[in-house]
Amino acid sequence: GGVVTLDPGYKNTGACESAITFLDGEKGVLRYRGYAIEELAEKAHFLEVCYLLIFGELPTEVQLNKFHEDIKAQSHVDEDVKRILDGFPKAAHPMGVLSSLTSALVAFNPSSVNVDSEEDMYKAIVKILGKFPVLTAWTYRKRMGLPLDYGGDTLGYVDNFLKMMFKKPSGDYTTNEIVLKALDKLLILHADHEQNCSTSTVRIVGSSHAGLFVSISAGIAALWGPLHGGANQAVIEMLEEIKADGGDTKKFMAKAKDKNDPFRLMGFGHRVYKNFDPRAKIIKKAADDVLENLGIQDDILDIAKALEKEALEDPYFVERKLYPNVDFYSGIIYRALGIPVEMFTPMFALGRLPGWIAQWREMRLNKEPIGRPRQIYIGEKLREFKTVEKR
Ligand code: CMC
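^ thats the input. predicted complex w/ carboxymethyl coenzyme *A below
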């Protein structure tokens, strides 16, 4: 019963009340639990931000250490997971592999599904925070034909991840502070973004009381698409294409504006930011800093800047309030850090993990009802069935 309001893409429909992330799309404001994204990106560490998003407050030193120890105690995956990973072709897209492995984790950790108490939730949360970086690094190493193993118990969360990714088969690994800081910042900037496509997916899957891991697995699948997290890969592929084509940005601008051409300027536009994306501002500067500090000259950055400048002056983009989003410059940094393009969206997933967890936990603690949108039926009226020989 009741009147159903139609709102494709939920452009104006609120699905929940949330105390996690504040976003003002007109003013370009983003805050996690009341803290400005600019300040967090500058001063906080990723693991502190994870804690903040999930539990609502910045941790004390004691709380942070305990959280980290609890995660470290769960930072291993069953050796049999290597056999599953082995079954995937090397060329498989890492997002598909990661989504599958994340759901497979349930089979190895069946108790993670029963989360009726906050204590059980906590156990599932530290497990996924511990194991997901391992799955991400292993997915990368398998692709590269490198041995699958672990980082080090004495390292920080992000440093440990970098070591798992880049350690040589000999075990050698040296921390590069610039790389570490840049990745930490990127992960913070990606950590939550209220009710976006993947987060809404996590909440809706979790609302059926399926466990945390499968809800995250579904979130990874949603993030994969080029209109969402997959845009960071698509941006670099687009910039490469422009470069290979001779660097004529105007030609690609024209394609983006042509309504008969499906091409869109990847990394541009946003459902809620209609002024600027505050994350893009921080990332653009970080891209400049990282390239300069690492002494890298990348033509692609110049193409990106030219494209941005043209778009910001172009009536088509101005009228539609299309600005560079978080994905426009992030890939340039990932590239400079030595991360291959297919791993860009997995990096986004690693960053978004605490946001997905926080939103899932909030949804369960608020005892939200199962997510179940309505529809307006526009199909056939009642018809009479004819057996196959009479059709
Ligand atoms: N290039 C060219 N035209 C665009 C673009 C673009 N990137 N984005 C939007 N438009 C046009 C669109 O064609 C439409 O024009 P018209 O009014 O003439 O029909 C108008 O702008 C409004 O676009 P929309 O598709 O109705 O807006 P939406 O809120 O449904 O979509 C979006 C938002 C992000 C999916 C879209 O802007 C897009 O496809 N951008 C490119 C992909 C991208 O960068 N995605 C990353 C999003 S940010 C982080 C994340 O989620 O990962």
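Residues 9, 196, 227-229, 231, 256, 264-271, 320, 322, 325-327 surround carboxymethyl coenzyme *A (CB under 6 Å).
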